[in-house]
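The records we work with from here on pair a chain with its fold. Here is one such record, which you should read through line by line:
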Amino acid sequence: MTQADDTAGIPALSQADEDLLRARLDALSNLLLDTSRQIHSRPEIRFEEVFASGLLASHLADHGFDVERGIAGLETAFTGTFDTGRPGPRVAIFCEYDALPEIGHGCGHNVIASSGLGAALLVKELLATDTALGGVSSWLAALPRRVAAGRSRSSRAACWTTSTRQSCCTPPERTSRRCARSAGPA
């Protein structure tokens, strides 16, 4: 797939939109850093991320997302949806927020969670203010990557197939493998 194919149908950002996003990111920086620090200070292993899940879902709700908790039969999985009501591609942003046993957030899932939150809030801001982009829906779906049940894998697959644009806020695979080796067996 070429770069042109990957961005087909998505207009380039105008300078005004880029300026808006930079200003909005500056305004969100304290919230995003604080979110990362709070999740880091309370590590919760997969499927037990009650605090992290609640914090992220609350931030999305506070910023105008419709939040659905307990998706895929998992108490700590949720989606946050912002729909402009205008036709356009559906954008899915996935993130992680679980800690690893014995090492906590050594792989940075607290940063991944905060990055995903920031991306979702910025996409929402752009969609809410620039009607020329069409009616793109943006949602953040959070499911643990280290799944132990097939139902979460199939739910994640369903999210991918209903989305026209997807993004995962995770480090490159090489970094993930190195982190997994340092953590020991999953």
Q: What stands out?
A: Residues 8 and 144 are 30 Å apart (CA to CA). The two ends are 33 Å apart (CA to CA).
